[in-house]
């Protein structure tokens, strides 16, 4: 029997903030303004939407997806106006009419099917499609049918991931090459990416929805947190991602927005390393940690103790969490040497590494640190070249649901498995959670999987972060988004210096 779960079109879309009425004169004054945006991470794949670079596309309102996940975790229309599960395996997606790509071509069913097909057949797949096998076909000119090999109760939510941004056919070249310049559909158009230093983004006047108030965005990639904070103080940036906690007290409080994030600072133990493959050694690492010292001394109390993989941004997790049964007893390290790695892009992590190295040394380990920029260290981390690796990890980045994160990080075939973890029981638990519809049963299954992961000591949660966003006094309607999908919207604009006082 077909399932009639049609979602009808809604008017408007979530912009993360309350409307602020501006006079006609003030609005007109800002129409030609360009906003200066300082970003944390440099592009890793030339802004390919099939990677985490997709979230930059999304944050600038350049790339768009078929559906949109609002602040409450509810799906809203974007490039699709309706979505209907017509069988357990098949979903019909009705497309918005009148949408134009930035290259001037029309968005139709063929273009959407092409974009989704490129993602489904990419190597490696986007993280959002880990463990997912689907096919896409057109259904007339204005709809597509997405069919999953196995029933996927969250397929519609999956389509909200920035990694499934819809690009024009002209974006896709030979051998998997993707050119994101002038090929998306959003209110802003990527004009030029200048390597890993800057990007130029202009308003797209052919946008299907409400036009953007800003003329454009001048993006700078500034991995150094102190430099980002300095750019805000000096006026070199209007909006700044991820102000380091050490810099927050040096800024005008009116320029700071602090948001609780579903992001966990986690210590990954390499299950294949000569030292950490021993469960007793991993337990010794766990027992050596002083999380409160990290929060007090590194995060200046702007973080929460990591009691699990999922933090206070998911209130249901704490309610359903149960103790880990019979944890392994710690072994005596006896001075064994281990390599502890992390990256500089998140300013606090090198300092976290220093404190952890001290704690582990006191426990009997000999610790060697390896700290580099993320773009330089990621390949080694994925290849398992560290005994321990500190990672700041978003746990709800894709679906508003942590199963995709767990599948990516903790299954045998996971594409981001820094711990090199491969446990059939954990795979089965994550799979069991993945097939359940949203609700309490799915949440309980997720917490069972978390409990098994914690019992392995392959991932040892340290703390749950709060991200601090900086905004100059001229900025209006920028978005502080807990899911890190939005920062600039059509409503974002600048006011005159006199108005900002």
From TrEMBL:
Q: Name one GO molecular function term.
A: peptide transmembrane transporter activity
Name any Gene Ontology BP term.
Answer: peptide transport
Q: What are the residue boundaries of the Solute-binding protein family domain, all occurrences included? A: 75-416
Kindly give the InterPro entries that the UniProt entry links to this protein.
Peptide/Ni-bd (IPR030678), SBP_5 (IPR039424), SBP_5_dom (IPR000914)
**GO CC annotations, alphabetized:** ATP-binding cassette (ABC) transporter complex; outer membrane-bounded periplasmic space
* Pfam families assigned to the protein according to its UniProt record, in alphabetical order: SBP_bac_5
This chain's protein is named ABC transporter substrate-binding protein
Which source organism?
A: Marinomonas piezotolerans
